[in-house]
Write a structure and sequence with these properties.
alpha+beta, eight-stranded mixed sheet, four-stranded antiparallel sheet, 39% helix, binds (R)-mevalonate
Amino acid sequence: MMRDVIPAHDLPSAARAPGKCILFGEHAVVHGKPELLLAIDLYAQVGVRPAPELLLNGHRSGARGHRYLQSALARLWAGEVPIDVTVASRIPKASGLGSSAAFVAALATTLVAAHGGAPRAVLAQEAFTIERSAQGVGSPGDTSASVAGGYLTLNSQSPHQGVALWDVAADGRRWGVRRVADPGWTWVVAYSGIPKDTGPLVRAVSARFAGEDGPALLDRFGEVAEDGIRAVAAEDREEVGRVLTRNQELLRAVGVSHPRLEALLAAAGPSVLGAKLTGAGGGGSIVALPREGREVDLVRRLARAGGVPFVVRPAPSGVELV
Ligand code: MEV
């Protein structure tokens, strides 16, 4: 069972954290609107041990230019012994599936454990602070999913918002993170092969939300996310499919879809109830809710269209020392 506290553990140590998949509300969540996401059973494992100098997977140069590693060290390891950090990950990099959040959560877990441990709520704030300072912008959805596991809502006002886990704050904004029940479904995600850079995409969409019709558009994102949260709580697959498609229309309207994503969505066609891009967009991945019994057909269609498909289930636990 997942512990509420990361226990103390001296170096060397290792931790394993799940990636994530956003179902509803990406981009708008940065501005305080609701989001629903789940931790997925694709994991990143990070090992940390003392070393004569800072290394990433045995390389000096890799460590020097790694924004997330540098940000974590500045926050949690300033003035400490040099370390060798090794990463093994099944989450494609820059794919919208939470590779950086999982890396940050796993690395922060080893460093927090080396300092005597901490409550998971503290780790969630630390992981977000590290990711945000590397990226410059963002919400705590991705890092909270890697820390908590399962299905989470952020900022929902609906009766289906779930059980409070923690609040996470940055620059005067607070996001309420809550756990909702797992409906027990299998999802299919597919990476387009086009890596994306979250920071510039979030800034471009923020500029769009600051425009004349921005507030109305943001409200529509919020309504769609609340409809999605309600439909998942009701375990209404047909409705969830329709809301996924409505969310994709909004993401297209703010300019973060991509021809490769549209090709994957078109290829998924008859084997899904609904599908959309997931994460920041501009490349990255799609998420699809398969029609029951059509999972294999869907995987074949997505692979034939050039995607890298994964059949995913929710990761029930968040990051753990291993
Ligand atoms: C990225 O996975 C999701 C965005 O909403 C940014 C964020 O929430 O940090 C685009």
